[in-house]
């Protein structure tokens, strides 16, 4: 009996599960259809509909024909406005930006093309083009079959950002704005607004050890720059034995080399809000970091860029500038320039040159601590963005050169002072 009761309970649960799945299968499409229907109704239409119902009820209850007539008039207006939704909006939409990468201050020019590829005419409609937080509105006239319309537009770029352009929306609505049917077309396009950068002579970065290897003060058992001979020690590579000296002295002698390093240019860009006095300093720091990184990439150096808690893509100039376009200030818990320098030392111990970029709120003590945390043997340079500085200044903090900039155009002269 117990087994039979258990089987009946299991069968009942299976039936309930099947009924539930069937109900969901029916309700989902119905809910989606209702969502599309109610999605065309604007708030003003809901208000007028409620007003018409209220007027009708009041007119019938009080016997006032004026209220009843008003209710009928409102209902007729609503029905007439609904008729404007009838019609096709099957445009073939093409969104084309002349350039998807511009510099701050340049205008991005684009074209929006709408073509009627059907066999029937398309009534006039509005086209919405979202651009970042704003949007452009274009009124498209009636398009006969096979016709097309082109709208040109320009996007001002007053600040560094990644601006999403699109998706294009075709809107069919009534003159009173009571109902609106929206069809989205095409895919959005990202517009990268790069920070301003300044070009300068590659010799300004001449303190780098170049790709062929400039000698350092460290000695190595295996390299390209010969230093001296020394007596053989267990573990030395026999390929470096100098046989003529071995035969002359009677002791096995091996070659000693000066260590050389490949140029490894590291930029540590602080994104901590506490390091900057205002947004202008933050943008100046980003532009200075971008200028230094681009110069190093043009000189075929290996470039690594670090900000708080992550690395920025910097394999190519385009990739590097794209990553700077999307850069925002970090959260306070991420720390400032001192923590960033520690992260650089932990992740890039073989860096040959490290440039720390920060704002004017970083004190001398923090700069000294940050530079002392950098990898041993690396050349240290700090660039301080200070919007109040009238001219570039150079000072020495520990083993690091510290340059203070008030404008991006001061960077080349400041670097020449460092190398003087």
Key terms:
420 residues, Immunoglobulin-like, four-stranded antiparallel sheet, 9 helices
Q: Could you say which overall geometry the principal axes of the C-alpha atoms support?
A: elongated
Compute the gyration radius: what is it? Answer: 35 Å
Number of helices: 9
* Portion in beta strands: 25-35%
Number of separate domains: 4
> What characterizes the major β-sheet?
7 strands, mixed
What ranges have pLDDT less than 50 throughout 5 or more consecutive residues? 206-220
Helix content: 25-40%
The total beta strand count reads 20
Q: H/E order of the elements?
A: HHHEEEEEEEEEEEEHEEHEEHHEHEEEH
Lateral arrangement of strands in the main beta sheet: 16-15-14-17-18-20-19
CATH class of the largest domain: Alpha Beta
Gap between N and C termini: 100 Å
CATH architecture of the largest domain: 3-Layer(aba) Sandwich
**Helix/sheet category:** alpha/beta
What's the overall average pLDDT, rounded? 81
CATH topology of the largest domain: Rossmann fold
What layout of secondary structure does this protein have?
Elements: H1 2-39, H2 43-62, H3 65-83, E1 91-97, E2 101-103, E3 108-116, E4 125-131, E5 134-140, E6 148-155, E7 161-165, E8 168-173, E9 180-185, E10 189-194, E11 215-220, E12 225-231, H4 243-249, E13 253-260, E14 264-269, H5 279-298, E15 302-307, E16 310-312, H6 317-325, H7 337-347, E17 353-359, H8 364-372, E18 379-385, E19 393-397, E20 400-405, H9 411-419
Parallel strand pairs: 2-10, 14-15, 14-17, 17-18, 18-20
Antiparallel strand pairs: 1-3, 3-6, 4-5, 4-8, 7-10, 8-9, 11-13, 12-13, 15-16, 19-20
Helix pairs in contact: 2-3, 5-6, 7-8
């Amino acid at each position: 009996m117990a087994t039979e009761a258990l089987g009946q309970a299991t069968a009942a649960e299976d039936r309930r599960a099947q009924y539930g799945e069937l109900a969901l299968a029916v309700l989902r499409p119905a809910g989606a259809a209702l969502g599309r229907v109610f999605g065309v109704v604007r708030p003003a239409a809901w208000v007028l509909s409620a007003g018409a119902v209220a007027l009708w009820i009041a007119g019938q209850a009080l016997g006032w024909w004026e209220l009843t007539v008003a209710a009928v008039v409102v209902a007729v207006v609503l029905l007439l406005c609904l008729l404007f939704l009838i019609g096709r909006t099957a445009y073939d939409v093409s969104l084309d930006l002349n350039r998807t990468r511009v510099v701050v201050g340049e205008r991005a020019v684009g074209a929006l093309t709408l073509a009627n590829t059907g066999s029937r005419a398309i009534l006039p409609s509005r086209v919405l083009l979202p651009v970042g937080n704003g949007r452009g509105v274009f009124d498209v006239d009636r398009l006969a079959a096979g016709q097309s319309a082109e709208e040109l537009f320009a996007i001002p770029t007053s600040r560094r950002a990644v601006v999403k352009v699109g998706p294009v929306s075709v809107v069919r609505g009534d003159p009173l704005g009571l109902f609106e049917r929206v069809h989205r077309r095409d895919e959005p396009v990202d517009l990268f607004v790069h920070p301003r950068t300044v070009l300068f002579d590659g010799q300004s970065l001449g303190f780098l050890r170049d790709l062929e290897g400039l000698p350092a003060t460290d000695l190595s058992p295996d390299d390209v720059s010969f230093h001296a001979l020394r007596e053989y020690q267990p573990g030395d590579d026999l390929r470096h034995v100098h046989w003529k000296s071995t035969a002359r002295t009677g002791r096995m002698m091996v070659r000693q080399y000066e260590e050389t390093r490949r140029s490894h240019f590291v930029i540590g860009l602080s994104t901590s809000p506490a390091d900057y006095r205002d947004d202008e300093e933050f943008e100046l720091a980003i532009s200075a970091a971008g200028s230094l990184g681009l110069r190093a990439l043009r000189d075929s150096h290996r470039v690594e860029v670090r900000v708080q808690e992550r690395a920025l893509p910097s394999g190519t100039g385009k990739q590097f500038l794209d990553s700077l376009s999307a850069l925002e200030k970090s959260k306070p818990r991420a720390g400032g320039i001192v923590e960033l320098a520690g992260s650089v030392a932990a992740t890039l111990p073989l860096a040959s040159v490290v440039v720390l970029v920060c704002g004017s709120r970083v004190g001398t003590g923090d700069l000294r601590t940050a530079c002392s945390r950098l990898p041993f043997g690396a050349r240290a340079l700090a660039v301080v963005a200070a919007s109040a500085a009238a001219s570039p200044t150079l000072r020495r903090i520990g083993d690091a050169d510290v340059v203070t900039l008030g404008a991006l155009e001061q960077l080349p002269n400041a670097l020449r002072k460092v190398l003087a």
